[in-house]
Amino acid sequence: MKVNGTHYRPIWQAADGSAVEIIDQTRLPHEFAVARLASMADAAHAIRAMLVRGAPLIGATAAWGLWLAMREDPSDSGLASAYETLMATRPTAVNLRWALDAGRARLATVAPGERVAAAEAFARRVCDEDAELNHAIGRHGLAIIEAIAATKPPGETVNVLTHCNAGWLATVDWGTATSPIYQAHDAGIPIHVWVDETRPRNQGAFLTAWELGNHGVDHTVIVDNAGGHLMQRGRVDLCIVGTDRVSANGDVANKIGTYLKALAAHDNGVPFYVALPSPTIDWTLHDGFAIPIEERSPDEVTRIPGRLDDGTTGAVTITPPGSRAANPAFDVTPARLVTGLITERGVAPATPEGLLGLFPERVAAGE
Ligand code: MRU
Description:
By secondary structure, this protein is of the alpha/beta class.
């Protein structure tokens, strides 16, 4: 996607091949900064500290992390230690495990002397495939938006509500939840997005609003508690969110607060779609309650960063001294509240049969 007219992905190999570069998402929207990852430790830090975030991008960063690790130590023990370090960075997005399992399996088939080249090819492939999967998700989601637009008077705006950032910043390109939105916008469908601010880290207000604005998509940032009211008043035609892990029965883990939006959508008859590439499906889990939920620092709740009136950036404390804060970062939306799962292969009902219908090879795999 474009930033001020220049095409960017959120992660790429440095032009001289010496490192990996990322858009530092902790600095957006107030500053566009590129950070350099020169070591596997840098990659692990970038994931843990959320310079990169979003399930597919976490997986892509881990793949590049393996490349950086193989440059440092391509031995079997170097590979095992890089796998463990990167795997420990964040617990909920299963794309991390998916990328590391696939990368380790690939690298184990080649001699240590060939691992740097193999890891580089693997990371490039993970990135290119993610961009392709997300583009395909957008085509299937576009059909949903077109169908809703067709029920409205010609030229009337389709209103989408989204939560967190499941945009191109969270992936390698296009985004998951945003891919149908960008493709509808590019196809000339009038579209407007209600952007949940997504406390505590404000991925909606900071990141989704920034990238929608860059692409020229009409949007309005709302506080997290506004969605139910807007749905009651008929001001939301559909919700589309991303996900960090979908269990085999169609339960969906996503950014904290997603469940409440799904409940409100259900109560108001608003379709609630979840967009995901297949590496986000955890076929080993029968239901979503086994998904590990990341607990993050209470500081993310008690303090809010932003741009001050004098133009500098900083953070303010919003709670009284002595008040405790809790920070579960994800929740699980039961499959019964999900209208459909938008994947690269089409839209599936959020059921075991629905998922296996789109991925029949998993039946053969015994899932
Ligand atoms: O904590 P984050 O910012 O990594 O959480 C991101 C989300 O919850 C996204 O909605 C999810 O990863 C889907 S990204 C396409």
